[in-house]
Each structure stands twice: as C-alpha cells, then as structure tokens.
Amino acid sequence: MTIIGAVCFALAFLSAVGLLVEDAHDRVAVAAAESARQLALSLEREVSRNIDLIDLSIQATADGVEQPVVMALPRVLREQLLFSRAAAARYIRNISVFDRDGRLIADSLSTLPSTQGRSGGAPFIPVTPQPAPAGDALFIGQPYLASDSTTRLVRFSRNRRTPQGIFSGVVTATVNLNDFSEVFYSLNVMPGTMVRLSTRNGVALLRDFTPPSAQTARESGSPGLTGRMLIALAMIFSKPADASLVAERPVPGTPLILSVQLSSQTVFADWRRWAIQLEAYSLFVSSLFLAGALYLTHVLRMRMRSEAVVTRLASIDSLTQLPNRRALDSTYSREVMRAARECRPLSVLFVDIDHFKTYNDQYGHVAGDHTLQAVADAVRACLRRDTDFVARYGGEEFVAILPDTAAREATALADVIRLAVRDLRRPHASVEAGVVTASIGVASYDRATDRATGSLLERADRALYAAKRTGRDRVTLCPTPAVEVFREPADLTA
Asked: Where are the transmembrane segments (predicted)?
C-alpha cells in the first residue's frame, strides 16, 4: 500500500504541475494574442496612413485634370502642378492619367506622346467607362513584376468624373511594393513575426514578411538536438505550443486585409524554458519521493519480518520446536469460543511422559532433552489435520487441541499417540515396559456443560492423573460432568 500511495501521490503531484504549466501556457497565449491584435492595429494604422497619402495624390491629380485652366498650361508646368502631391508619397513610382478611351494623357515620369499606350513599363489596361456612382472607390489591381524582374509593383486607381458626374477616365498610381514594405520596419516587430497584406479576394501584395533582423535572430536561435530533446521533455506533461497566433484587421476604405502571424517558437520561448525547468524539478522531486517510499517500504517489510520472527520465537519452544505455553493459551481460548459459538465439538489431550524425572536421573539431562524432542516429533506426526494443534505445556507435558473432534475420535487418536511413543524404543529401566511410555488424559467439550473456558483443560488434566494412578502407559477419558442443561426461555407469546 505504501508503494501504491507513493505512486498515486507522485502522479497527482505531476498532474498538478502539468495543470500549472498548462495554465501558464494559456496565459502566455492570451497575452500573445493581445500583442498580435495591438501589432495588427498599429500596422493597419500605418498602412492606412500611407494608402491615404497615395489616394490623396490620385484625387489631387484627378481634380487637376478636370480643370481646363490647368490642362491649358505648358506641359512642364502642368505636370508639376498635377503631380505635386505625388512627391509627398515616397512609395509612388509614377502617376498616370487616362481618358475615357484608355489613352494616356499625362504621366509623372513619361515623356512619351499622349497616343502611347504604355506607362512606366507597366502593361496597358483598357479602361471601361463605369456608370455613376459605381466604381468611385479606390481600386487596387494585381501585383506584377517590373522589367528588372525583381521589383514588385501594384496599381492604385480611381475613376475621373466631370463636375457634372460624367465618367471621363482613370487616374492610376503605380506603387513600388518593395519600398512599401518599409512601413513595417518602423515598428518593434517580434522576431519570427509574419505580416501579410492582401486583398479581400486573397491576392497577396506583401506575403510572408519578416524583418531581416528578426529572421536572423530566429535562425540563430533555433534549438539544436539537445534543445529539441529538452523541449520534448517539457511537452510530456504540458500543453503543446505549436500553433501560431494570428490577428487580422481590414484596412478602412480599401479592399485590403492586414494579417499578423506571431511565431510560437518566439512567443513561447520563455514559457518553454520555464516549463522545462519546472518539470525537471518536479520529476526530480517525484523520483526522490518514490525512492524514499521504496526505502521506507523496504524498512517496514524488514521490520515486519523481524517482528514475525520475534513473535514466532516468542511462541515456539526452543527445545522441541513446538508452540509454547503462551501460544497454547491463545489457541485454546480461541478454539473454545469458536466451538461454543458454532456448537461444534472440541477435544483436548494432556500427554505426560511416565517417570521422566527418574529418566533424567538415570540417563542424564542431555538424554532427557533428546527424549523430549523425540516424543514431540512423535506426537506432531500423529496429528494429520492442519487445524490440530500441539504445544509443550511445561516440563515433560504436552497438550493437543483437536477442533471438530468428539470424545470417541479423540480417545482413538490418544491411543495412537501412546503407541507411537512406545514405538520410539527409547530404554527406560524404571518403567515396567522397559521403554519410554506416556500417559494421556482426554476431555471433550460439551456446550451444555462447559460454560467456562478453563473447565476442558482442567478435566483433561484430571483424566491424566487418573491414568497415572491406574498404572500409567494408558489413555483415560474424563467423563462429562452431570450439570443442569441450559434451556432457552419459553416464548411468552405462545
């Protein structure tokens, strides 16, 4: 039970530690989710501010094109006036103005004639007139590569309308996405963080963005084999932290969605180290506790064995190896109570070696001890049932207790014992038979007459003395005393 209790305690302790680690994981996850939301909010505001600058540049250009006075100016002055706002938005590569038929009428970088259908290396996109008021929102096209095959570009555009609301063309702003990604460098981004800016239909403008410093830190901080083994140890009793944390925010006024994805490797790095330490300490403490429990169990078992040996030695006669008087008294009281409770017969044999004092005087005490041992072995050999009990009463006397044995069976067994003692053929000159003999007194239990536990043993002792008086080497049965039989009280309701 000690080992089972120790194991249960250790498992309960480790379970409590596991719950503590899981609770700490949940708290870190909640804090990280809030950080992801705050970072997404900050990035969304930064992106929204820069897109507003781009949109203002487009609207300012569209408003200038619709003014005849501006369009009548020389080309250099006209373009300076039309594209003055574009200089404030450093991510705009160029702004182009198309008429309702898709012809280029102005470009912030191009010196081509107005009939040319290309702008800044970008593919010409035919413009289809849009009925008012549909199509008045800021439109963001598909990203594409410039002629250098490394620069990623995207077009922002708005419809042009006359003061009367008639569609008159399109103004587009070509934005360099490589430069636009610098928007995210102004913020303190956690290493391993992924930022994605995409349209609502899933087209990514900026994808899997990670600041170079964060990427370097993530690669340099990747765990080796030992680290992975410790992490695996931490995961035995703790909640796994392999799910990244994602926060999304729409960019107001645009069809864009900003997504921030935190790296679980970075978010849970401190928690993982703490969990490894805590669980290592917990396993160490549990191991010490189990080792202590094992040692304590071993000590208790050794003590129980020692006590059992001491108890056995205290209840065994050292000469004959039979139970002693102390064990006899305990067994006798128990069997008498059981016989009275269950109304079963019980018999007692009182065995005494004839003229044993004379035997010791003639042959010496060493020979007497050997004879006692031989007689004890003979009596024990005659008792065949496990429930039969024999003990050394004292000196040369032995007592046998026979549960579930009536007077006739007990007398027959006593005669077998008497003959077994004679068959030892140990010389005894003071006895008529010439060998060691024994006298035996027999008494049987009767529930109607034996009310006291001591009466059965006393009657067997009296029967023994009767056998000695009548010549020894014989068996004598003590008659049941004539007493009034106990009767149950009459049923008063009869």
From this structure: 274-296
Same CATH topology for 52-175 and 325-477: the answer is no
pLDDT at position 419: 95
Cα of first residue to Cα of last residue in the chain, in angstroms, is: 56
- For residue 73, the cross-strand partners are none
Mode of pairing for the β-strands spanning 152-161 and 167-176: antiparallel
DSSP symbols for 100-142 = TTS-EEEESS--S-TT---BTTBPP-------TTTT-S-EE--
Query: Beta-carbon neighbour count of residue 173 at 10 Å?
Result: 26
pLDDT at 144: 87
CATH assignment of 325-477, among 3.30.260.10, 3.30.70.270, 2.40.240.10, 3.30.1050.10:
3.30.70.270
Q: How confident is the prediction for the chain on average, in pLDDT?
A: 79
Whose structure tokens read 């645009």?
254
Strands (E) in 275-388, as ranges, are 346-353
Which residue type, as a one-letter code, is found at position 406? A
Q: Judge residue 377's burial from the number of C-beta atoms within 10 Å of its C-beta, 0-12 exposed, 13-18 middle, 19 or more buried.
A: middle
Question: Among 182-191, 436-445, 461-470, which is the least confidently predicted range?
Answer: 182-191
Side-chain-facing half-sphere of 25: CA atoms under 13 Å: 21
Residue 436 to residue 420: CA distance in whole angstroms: 10
- Give the CATH superfamily of 52-175: PAS domain (3.30.450.20)
Q: Which residues pair with 352 in a beta bridge?
A: 397, 439
Report yes or no: 348 and 383 within 8 Å, Cβ to Cβ.
Answer: no
Asked if 272 and 240 count as a contact pair (C-beta separation under 8 A), the reply is no
Specify the pLDDT at position 184. Answer: 72
**pLDDT tens, 198-255?**
888 888 888 655 544 444 444 444 444 444 444 444 444 344 444 458 888 998 888 8
Can you tell me the distance from the alpha carbon of 284 to that of 398, in angstroms, rounded to the nearest whole number? 60
Region 454-464: what's the mean pLDDT? Answer: 87
Has this prediction a pTM greater than 0.85?
A: no
